[in-house]
Specification:
about 130 residues; two-stranded antiparallel ribbon
Amino acid sequence: EYVFGQAPFVIRSKVLLEAEKRAAGKTIDLDSLLLFIVDQWREEAGRAEERLRALFVASDADGDGNLDYNEFTAMIHHVSTNKGHRECLRMYAEMTLNRVVDCNTFVRVARKFRFFTFEVGPAVKKQE
């Protein structure tokens, strides 16, 4: 349960169901189960990256392929995230090391800062 604590309920139940299927009596074929878990993780990572790319495109208001600071802050205000104000500033500062915050840079830095666990909705957060 600890391993799948951050995974959505559907994925956890899918993995548990698959483990029960692969159980032969009191033993489980760990190799095939681990391969299944890795495949599920890859699929979830792919979906998270697609969500980040879609978020970038939706936040790039002028469509120039570059996320400027105003677009970034507008995105933060429209997305509920567990990140504080300072961490979001650090994230943007690291993105701007490349001078241009393109989609690939955004995805790379967002994954580094574990920003991919966002939920869309109004953000009411206390500023640090």
